[in-house]
Amino acid sequence: MINLSSPFIRRPVATTLMAIAIVFAGLIAFRQLPVASLPQVDFATITVAATLPGASPEVMASSIATPLERQFGHIAGVTQMTSSSTLGVTSVTLQFDLSRDVDGAARDVEAAINAARADLPANLPSNPTYRKINSSIAPIMVLSLTSDSADRGKLYDLASSIISQKIAQLQGVGQVQVVGSSLPAVRVDLNPDQLHSYGIGTQNVAQALSVQNSNRPKGQFSDELTTTEITANDQISTAKDFAPIVVGSNNGKVVRLRDVAHVYDSVQTLRSAGYVNGKPSVILLVFRLPNANVIDTVDRIKQELPSIRASVPAADHLQLMLDTTTTIRSSVNDVEVALGLSILLVIAVVFVFLRSPRATLIPGAAVAISLIGTFAVMYLLGFTLDNLSLMALTVSTGFVVDDAIVVMENITRLIERGVPTFRAALQGTQEVAFTVVAMSLSLIAVFVPILFMGGVPGRLFHEFAFTLATSVAISMVISLTVTPAMCAFLLKPAEEGQHNGLYRWSERGFDYVLGAYRTTLGWALRHPRTVVFSLVMTLVLNVLLAGVVKKGLFPQQDTGTIFGGFQGSQDASFQSMNRSLLSIQGVIRKDPAVENVAGFTGGQGGPGGGASNSGFLFITLKPRSDRDISATGVVDRLRPQLDAIADASTFLQAAQDLGVGGRQSNAQYQYQLSADTVDALSKWGPAMYHAMQKMPQIKDVTTDQQNSGLQVLLDYDRMTAARFGITPKLIDNALYYEFGESQVSTIYTSLNQYYVVMEANPVLLSSPSTLQSTYVHASGASSVPLGAFSTTRISTSPLAVNHSSFFPSTTISFNLAPGVSLGQATTLITQMQRKLDMPADIVTQFAGTAQAFQSSLSSEPLLVLGALFAIYVVLGVLYESLIHPITILTTLPSASVGAMIALILFRSELDVISLIGIFLLIGIVKKNAILMIDFALQAERTEGKSTEESIFEACMLRFRPILMTTMAAALGALPLALGHGAGSELRRPLGIAIVGGLIFSQILTLYTTPVIYLYFDRMRQRFNRRHTRRPAGGPAAQS
Question: Superkingdom of the source (predicted)?
Fold first, then answer.
């Protein structure tokens, strides 16, 4: 048989240079790898926004959202389409499948907006805009702008016109949203009684303001030598300039704007406010583009901040309020430390067993070369240094050393028998080469199903699987090339007298353990039924534990950030919401774990939209080392204090690195109802909401269905109005000009465009009774009060109209009570929904993270079966046998039992992280079986021993490397299981599953594998005997 390792053993210089080249390439790649919290799993997501100041949510939904949704429905690859329409604002979020390129999707969205333009309102101030961001995902950075002297309007102008533009130009930034105030504006507060006394209508004022402020081209003069442009003082920009404008005449006297209105410099909307730590502030929310690296993007912003601050007046202060990358950097640093600890522990295990620094150097070098070489492949594949890829490398330290241990241990065994070192290297490597290849390929096969896993978990763990498989593949190559070459030149035969006392003492200890194993194995082989019964019990335990262990999608992270929202009653005014915001911030700021808190209200949209009775909060916690409580603990501690604030309900949630879904909500998980009609939704949405509120297993239950806002319905007599010469359009215009903050003129400057905003005096906006005395200027130049031909009544109306895939929908959001898993919550909610007996036209489903959890839950059994099948195929091909792979696979149930017991004991959930740990256990445990069976088969074929003798001898000879590799894998995962610090909650389930599974399976498989091997061998022998007897007495023989 050709010895593939021979050239590498015989040419040590070439082998050494190859190893150095791998390390060199890996080190260079390591410095170039970008850093992230998790692999990029961003869906191509585009948010479309349209504004029509003063329009009700129903008008926005019917006249803007619906036409846009009709066109968006024709775009290929849209997996989720949601819209939210509030007062004057519509936001449509389109989420595409993972294979869709965001730039191509953006082109399709732009074409759809253009196609819908003819169906949109003619008075829409500007075309709908789109951005390649998911506005339901949290911002990566929050900045605050305060001032010692400037008002918030000027601060907003500075933030919007200069600061946000500079930040938005940086690579990776998707959008900079400025909240907390609005642009400067000239406000015109009309006095309707004065207008009536002068016989002037509101439309006359609007027209005068529009024509008196013009910015049109005027032409030029030109002769043979010069060109002279024409300009004029047709642009006015301040309240002082607008006040003298003539808006009409009365009895031969001109009527100026100041005669019928209060004209002053202010802001575009008075119903908006933002605060940072209780101080008035303008807030900048920075969102990244899909697939942009968050660390690189934030670094670019930080590099630009000094020059931005230099352009800000000295009295204004631009502060970094929230940086989501702080904990990401700490988490990655901590997992790098865990990787280093794992390497040290693995090498320590090797040293304990080999008791020779020179011998320990050989597998140590294999670990270093394999891991460092993996960085080069990660760079070529475009991976990042994130928690998952570094976790893969940490876990792989116990794997990559296995192959080197198997090779070196076999070479050492031959040297101890007196075989010369060089020959032992050649012979020993050849004997175990097939074993090493079988172990490595079967381990890589475990991850084949993950590579085909769809959705968020699949995209998330592609990088993990590729990284670990790469390290294992490199380890296989190094173990068959570099390791035997090092053994040939570093290992020396030891004479009896050369061993020190520690060696002899440890050897006696190992001989004692081996003797105990020999005795117990002999008993197990004599009582095979007992062993098989224990194996059957592990299968039963798997089923029972799978029903008991808590299930989730992703561990709850402590990112040092809390996001939240607050909501007043549906008829709450802006003034009431402003007071609530200050009260809420006051409570939060008193918590000892809180460093900064920012918030805003005013229904300006915010991240993902927001009704006029809502607001948003961003809380930065102190570093984890400076607080003794997790982010979730802070939320639980603040909840009763915030509940005591009567005017608003506050909902907080610990920010997570992984966000799923296209609709912003006040809690981490969502349950969605859709219906054909709003009436059906209005009945069953509240029913489900109130039912969920009564469930003790969930907290912070809130709904986006707000259909009880107050509205004044104007019911006018069309015939009477017609006799006055009044049309519905005149009525709508009169109402809009007085109560809608109408933008009647535009002020153009070199920096930005500003508006002249007109409405009635704020005193008149406090009571609906004002409507009766509102005048409509008829076509005959007479003013008629609305009370002359109409009546008013108070009714309810929605504050927000939400759609999901064209249909009216409502989303109920919730958080989990302490100690409750997502799996338990989804089961209970589903049972509750069935008890309500909703009609068939009400479609219910979990959304966002909860929906991703259900999808992953349904695919987990298929993934496990796929992994088992892949291993069976690989082993069947390698062994040319249908039976031996089954023998190896019988070791696997014990691994998952141990993992689930450990998860239950340590109060962890069976989520995608711990599931990966179980996949890894499949690879580790079957390695032990491969070591036993491969040596047993060799003994049968080459030495002619019986099956019983062969498997017994294989167990004895392979006991040391099995013990070494298992301990190496367990100690390699131990830093993950016991880790603390940033990101430890993400790593801990993986370590717990691996360590727990290894402890349990190691004890059991040392006995079940040889027993099952003998059972299958006896079955094979009986089958062969029957097969050979059948031709002798069968019809064919007789004929």
Answer: Bacteria
